[in-house]
């Protein structure tokens, strides 16, 4: 029952959703501010990645972790989920193991794009609208 959202009251779930979501935003903004310090790329990559993880985890409070995982890995989200998680890990690998600042920045940008594409999958027809917008702009 612990992994089910129904064990918490609706108010508690919304409160923890908001706390995690705001913490995610704060981490991402803090990471961006720290980017300009010497060796700030590591802090940026860590805080930006933690911010995305906190924002992703925030929805666990609304629907419960098991339902969250099930919806994340539905066929229509599978590729977006795997790519998003891959770039979260690659960002941290780039700064801690490979020590490649440019690659870390690229992975952060790709992390943002993957997270955006993943998030759009929850809004009906949002992905279609984005694709139509880009195709009309390009051709």
Automatic annotation (TrEMBL):
<dbReference type="GO" id="GO:0016192">
    <property type="term" value="P:vesicle-mediated transport"/>
</dbReference>
<keyword id="KW-1133">Transmembrane helix</keyword>
<dbReference type="GO" id="GO:0015031">
    <property type="term" value="P:protein transport"/>
</dbReference>
<dbReference type="GO" id="GO:0012505">
    <property type="term" value="C:endomembrane system"/>
</dbReference>
<feature type="transmembrane region" description="Helical">
    <location>
        <begin position="104"/>
        <end position="125"/>
    </location>
</feature>
<dbReference type="GO" id="GO:0016020">
    <property type="term" value="C:membrane"/>
</dbReference>
<feature type="transmembrane region" description="Helical">
    <location>
        <begin position="43"/>
        <end position="66"/>
    </location>
</feature>
<feature type="transmembrane region" description="Helical">
    <location>
        <begin position="78"/>
        <end position="98"/>
    </location>
</feature>
<protein>
    <recommendedName>
        <fullName>Vesicle transport protein</fullName>
    </recommendedName>
</protein>
<dbReference type="InterPro" id="IPR011691">
    <property type="entry name" value="Vesicle_transpt_SFT2"/>
</dbReference>
<keyword id="KW-0812">Transmembrane</keyword>
<comment type="similarity">
    <text>Belongs to the SFT2 family.</text>
</comment>
<dbReference type="Pfam" id="PF04178">
    <property type="entry name" value="Got1"/>
</dbReference>
<keyword id="KW-0472">Membrane</keyword>
<dbReference type="InterPro" id="IPR007305">
    <property type="entry name" value="Vesicle_transpt_Got1/SFT2"/>
</dbReference>
<dbReference type="GO" id="GO:0005737">
    <property type="term" value="C:cytoplasm"/>
</dbReference>
<keyword id="KW-0653">Protein transport</keyword>
<feature type="transmembrane region" description="Helical">
    <location>
        <begin position="16"/>
        <end position="37"/>
    </location>
</feature>
<comment type="function">
    <text>May be involved in fusion of retrograde transport vesicles derived from an endocytic compartment with the Golgi complex.</text>
</comment>
<keyword id="KW-0813">Transport</keyword>
């Amino acid at each position: 029952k612990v992994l089910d959202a129904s064990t918490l009251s609706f108010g508690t779930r919304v409160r923890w959703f908001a706390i995690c979501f705001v913490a995610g935003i704060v981490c991402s903004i803090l990471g961006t501010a720290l980017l300009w310090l010497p060796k700030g790329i590591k802090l940026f990559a860590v805080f930006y990645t933690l911010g995305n993880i906190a924002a992703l985890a925030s929805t666990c409070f609304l629907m419960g972790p098991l339902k969250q995982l099930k919806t994340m890995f539905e066929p229509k989200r599978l590729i977006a989920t795997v790519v998003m998680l891959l770039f979260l890990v690659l960002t941290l690998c780039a700064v801690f193991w490979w020590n490649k600042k440019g690659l870390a920045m690229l992975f952060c940008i790709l992390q943002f794009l993957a997270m955006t594409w993943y998030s759009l999958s929850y809004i009906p027809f949002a992905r279609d609208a984005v694709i139509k917008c880009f195709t009309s702009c390009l051709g």
